[in-house]
Amino acid sequence: MFNGHIGMARNFMEENIIMVRKLVVGALASLAMMLSTAAFAQAQFGTATEAKAMLEKAVAAVKADKSKALAMFNNGEGGFKDRDLQPFCFNISDGKIVATTVPNLLGTDIRTLKDKNGKEFGKEGYQGQ
Q1: Burial, 105: exposed, middle or buried (Cβ in 10 Å; 0-12, 13-18, 19+)?
Q2: Lowest-pLDDT range of 2-16, 85-99, 114-128
Q3: What is each CA distance from 120 to 2, 78, 86, 109, 110, in whole angstroms?
Q4: pLDDT digit string, tens, across residues 41-87
Q5: Using a CB cutoff of 8 Å and minimum separation of 24, what contacts does 49-53 make?
Q6: Confidence class for position 125, pLDDT limits 50, 70, 90
Q7: 17-20, long-range: CB within 8 Å, 24+ apart, which pairs?
Q8: Which secondary structure element, helix H or strand E, spans residue 98, and what is its range?
Q9: Taking burial as the number of CB atoms within 10 A of a residue's CB, which of 10, 17, 41, 90 is the most buried?
Q10: Mean pLDDT of the chain
Q11: What is the Cα–Cα distance from 35 to 37, expressed in whole angstroms?
């Protein structure tokens, strides 16, 4: 019975590490998009420094209380929605988005997401885990 608890704790820790990894990938993708458009309407978009700060804050929030962090991400609360900057998370097992400030994307398989030009950025994000 004791070994079962250790296994469950190990699985929980591995899932949290994977979620943090996904969060990092999502934030880095947002950062890359920001950098490519930095000169355009700077006041409308967050900076690379701001994106990195939000990423660090998001990782700390997930480590402290995963459920509370996901709720804050979904609601854009606690400073987790700033212009074009916001974290999002998805399950590694099925690719389903579990945290985003865009409610109609909740439950969507990230691997199906495409940009306005048809580029499958969701597959890249999922594979970058």
Answers
A1: middle
A2: 2-16
A3: 45, 30, 20, 12, 9
A4: 557 889 999 999 998 999 999 999 999 999 999 999 999 999 989 99
A5: 50/82, 50/85, 51/27, 51/85, 52/27
A6: confident
A7: 18/92, 18/129, 19/62, 19/66, 19/89, 19/92, 20/59, 20/62, 20/63
A8: strand 97-99
A9: 90
A10: 80
A11: 5
CA distance 28 to 43: 20
- pTM value is 0.61
Bin 127: left if φ > 0, else alpha if -120 < ψ < 50, else beta.
alpha
> Which two structure tokens, joined as six digits, stand for 90?
């998805």
Rounded distance between C-alpha atoms, residue 99 and residue 89, angstroms: 5
Helices 48-64 and 66-75: crossing angle in degrees, nearest 10, is 140
C-alpha to C-alpha distance for 32 and 98, rounded to whole angstroms: 22
User: What range does the domain containing 92 cover?
Assistant: 2-127
With H, G, I as helix, E, B as strand and everything else as coil, classify residue 2.
Answer: helix
Total domains, the chain: 1
3-class secondary-structure state, position 96: strand
